[in-house]
Fold:
Amino acid sequence: MARNFLTIDDIAETLGITRQTVSKYIREKELNAVKINKSYRVPFRDFELFLSRNATISEVKVDFRRSRNCQLDYAGRTDESEILSGYSAGVLQEVDIQHDQPWNQFIFGDNYLILKKLLPDLKEKVDLVYIDPPFGTGQDFINRDNDLAYSDSLVNQEFLEFMRKRLYLMRECLSPRGSIYLHIDKKIGHYVKVIMDEVFGYDNFINDITRIKCNPKNFARNAYGNYSDMILFYARNRDENIFAGIRQPLSEREVEKLFPKKHPKQGRYTTNPLHAPGETVDGDTGKPWKGLNPPKGRHWRYSRKVLTDLDRDGLVEWSDTGNPRKIVFARDHKGKKIQDVWEFKDKGLSYVSYPTQKNHEMLRQIILNSSVANSLVMDCFAGSGGTLQMAHRLGRRWIGMDNSLKSLDAVKKAFAKAGISCNYYNFVGLD
Ligand SMILES: C[S@@+](CC[C@H](N)C(=O)[O-])C[C@H]1O[C@@H](n2cnc3c(N)ncnc32)[C@H](O)[C@@H]1O
Structure:
């Protein structure tokens, strides 16, 4: 896989300047770089941005290896440097201040302007972004009281550009170990993937997660049922991202299959051979244990001392013919690695406070895996505030935004019920 960053030496050579000068740019924060162990890495896009900001340097012919990004071309694309330059002139008006911490806040307003306003404070501070934006459907979404919650009115390239501009700002907010999960449907999702490749870098793509969202559908039309959507998962810097690798418990059926035997007191178990392929020529694992040699062409998996300890602890099962096997209990199984198809169904409209409200257990899995205690978690399309609630419950700090009054209502009600203190602000534009 192609590299998507440059070293100080690469940049010095490309620009024909000394390493010291490059280091100075990094020190003075003119050039963004990530420190890994003792060396710096400059992502391509940061280098490009640096070049576009420095007119004299940008005249230098630059010929560095690009990552495999594709780009969607459509009329009305704003230049990256324009998106990222300048700050929003608006103010955050305090509406209801419930605590004295700088985070745990909900800001009512357009997330583009809010992100532009907050970028100096949020830059590289956010460990996790989860967003579930409108899907470019052209539809209105009503809540269970039949009131309009939000209009998903932008479609086609207007929608893509709306997302692209915001994604650039979110990228800047991500910490070097941060990551973003973007929830989207399969009609527009593949276009959004290309936009995300452009913004975050093809090499920073981690997973396209298929999320089973509802029960199978039986529509009478010439198609397969559509019961899934997608979550695009990207890191700010691939392989540096926080990832707890939490595991999923085995289902009852899996436990029965993998652990077919039953111990009267200690529950389900299975047994594994105590030997492994390959002969030990001279070592302990090739010697007889309890009068038994390992079978021909094999060696004991453990030293004879460990074998004796296992046997003493009741962890060796002897067959009628005197063959020993290691006992492995189901209760010691660490769970299975989570794959890229998830089943987290959403509740129907009549059961939720906000339309398109996402499954809280799914959010819990994302937050547990891609943030740590005290991480800052951001949802700029917060809706009912599920991401923020779950982040709060898991001991993370959080920041939410939405421009729907029905979202603000839903968040206020849910937080009051859950006893969550939140500082509420209105973004007031001065432009
Ligand atoms: C699909 S809903 C999010 C639902 C949410 N994930 C939940 O579980 O409740 C999308 C949200 O984005 C909000 N939204 C759309 N455009 C926005 C903008 N420019 N700024 C802030 N919020 C916006 C809408 O008001 C809506 O609440």
About this structure: The two ends are 44 Å apart (CA to CA).
